[in-house]
Write a structure and sequence with these properties.
- It is built from 17 helices and ten strands.
- The protein is α+β, with helices and mostly antiparallel strands.
- The strands form three sheets. Strands 3, 4, 7, 8, 9 and 10 form a six-stranded mixed beta sheet that branches.
- Helix 8 packs across helix 9, helix 9 runs parallel beside helix 16 and helix 16 runs antiparallel to helix 17.
- It is 40% helix and 13% strand.
- The chain is globular and about 65 Å long.
- The chain has two domains: 218 residues, 3-Layer(aba) Sandwich (D-Maltodextrin-Binding Protein, domain 2); 219 residues, Periplasmic binding protein-like II (D-Maltodextrin-Binding Protein, domain 2), CATH 3.40.190.10.
- The two termini are 30 Å apart.
């Protein structure tokens, strides 16, 4: 089944720490008085973001506080990691408003770790306009919304370095369209430039995440209802592909322990020819890694087979269960202002774009719609004159992704499934004699135990 531009976002559900304790200071008043003074701690940018990105965020905070003079916003560096998030949340080191992958919301709701935001969400004029198939992942069994679709609604693409393509004698305007072509290009890049032709994330859950991406692209799945299916032929083919690149072609460089941040850094530094990740990563590459826009290219991940598809995911905004009423009231105003209003209000869209451009930040990075495709197209029209990203270097992705089948991440014990697969990816990349069948059998048993435990 193909997904149209209008219905594409309906298939998406997602996949993606602070070092000091954050004290959420607010009035002791529990009445929810919208005029009471309140200090609101919120997530900011990734650690190590450039001064220009910090400047743009600071301007947003200033503008927000002018509109809401009773609210003082404190931003904190933040990067969601599967290995640390649970401990940070339990230890109280997260801001009051924080970000989570779509896949985590149901567990946090069940554990009563995030608050019911339905009555606050109802205050927004566009509360009923969300894509309901996205919104459901943040809803509890009572039907109330606890986590709100906020940003980075993505489909995984193939990112490539145009400069390395040119140096290797490849045409950067004709990126690979099959896995065989990816392999050939990776080998050429490695031989001609001495850089990794292709790299793969492998730790902190990212190895399993991207191996699932590879599996979907070949037509396989890693879960079937409550059954782990990691031993399927498509996951095996994906691992054999990595094994061939690593041990036969020697085209993957020397670093086999990348996480999301690490692979972004290496790619922006020109050390990687190709890798797979969400199509929205260009913003982070600019804000945190100082990528040269002229070197960047984005294309579709190769798809093969009738059941092949592109993994989709995204980020939700949630509010800590420790929040007081005045903080909840302030939180929905910040979520509206910072994440969502630009998609529904022309003035807000223009103001946000102006702020980003003034701070030399990317405007126009491809996204997938939180509301409807028509609403998102209108937003694109509003910001058209401000766009400063190299969209002409992304057309082999943007012209095709809306016709691809989007596939949800594994629904049960997602992070545990990914962690089980991390071990497999690491073994294949570091042990020439790794037994793929045995590794997957062991990983499947671990994943099944996690799925059973999750109920």
């Amino acid at each position: 089944m193909k997904y149209s531009r209008t219905t594409m976002a309906a298939a998406i559900v997602g996949a993606l720490a602070l070092s000091s304790t954050l004290v959420a200071c607010s009035s002791d008043d529990k009445s929810g008085d919208s005029n009471a003074k309140v200090e609101l701690n919120v997530v900011g940018l990734l650690p190590g973001s450039k001064p220009e990105a910090l400047q743009a965020l600071a301007q947003e905070v200033t503008d927000f506080q002018k509109e809401n003079p009773n609210i003082t916003v404190k931003t904190h560096d933040y990067e969601w990691k599967a290995t640390t998030f649970a401990a940070d949340l339990a230890g109280g080191t997260l801001p009051t408003v924080f970000e989570i992958p779509f896949t985590d919301a149901k567990t946090l709701i069940a554990n009563q770790q995030i608050v019911d935001m339905q009555s606050y969400l109802n205050q927004l004029s566009y509360a009923s306009a969300f894509n309901k198939n996205l919104l459901q992942y943040g809803q509890g069994q009572d039907g109330h919304v606890y986590a709100i679709p906020a940003k980075s609604i993505y489909a995984v693409g193939l990112h490539y370095n145009r400069d390395l393509f040119t140096q290797a004698g490849l045409d950067p305007n004709k990126p690979p369209t099959s896995w065989d072509e990816v392999r050939q290009a990776a080998k050429a890049i490695a031989e001609k430039t001495n850089q990794a032709g292709f790299a793969q994330m492998s730790k902190d859950g990212t190895g399993g995440w991207q191996l699932t991406v590879d599996t979907y692209a070949r037509g396989g799945r890693v879960e079937d209802g409550k059954k782990a299916t990691l031993t399927n032929e498509h996951t095996k083919a994906s691992l054999q592909f990595l094994k061939d690149l690593r041990w036969t072609d020697n085209s993957m460089g020397a670093n086999f322990s990348y996480d999301w941040a690490g692979i972004n850094q290496a790619f922006a530094a020109g050390k990687i020819g190709m890798y797979t990740s969400g199509q929205d990563v260009y913003t982070s590459l600019v804000q945190t890694n100082n990528i040269n826009p002229k070197s960047y290219g984005l294309t579709m991940i190769p798809l093969s087979g009738s059941e092949s598809g592109v993994l989709g995911g995204g980020t939700m905004a949630a509010v800590s269960s420790k929040a007081k009423d005045n903080e909840k009231s302030a939180a929905i105003k910040w979520i509206d202002f910072h994440y969502l209003r630009k998609y529904t209000n022309q003035g807000a869209a223009a103001k946000n774009a102006e702020t980003q451009v003034a701070s030399k930040q990317p405007v126009g990075t491809p996204e997938l719609p939180i509301f409807t495709q028509q609403q998102y197209q209108q937003y694109q029209d509003w910001i058209k004159s401000y766009v400063n990203v190299p969209l002409d270097q992304m057309t082999t992705f943007t012209s095709k992704v809306f016709d691809a089948k989007l596939v949800n991440e594994p629904a049960i014990a997602t992070q545990d499934v990914y962690k089980a697969l991390d071990t497999v990816v690491q073994a294949v990349l570091t042990d020439k004699d790794a037994n793929i069948d045995q590794l997957l059998n062991d990983a499947n048993a671990k994943a099944q135990r996690a799925i059973d435990a999750a109920g």
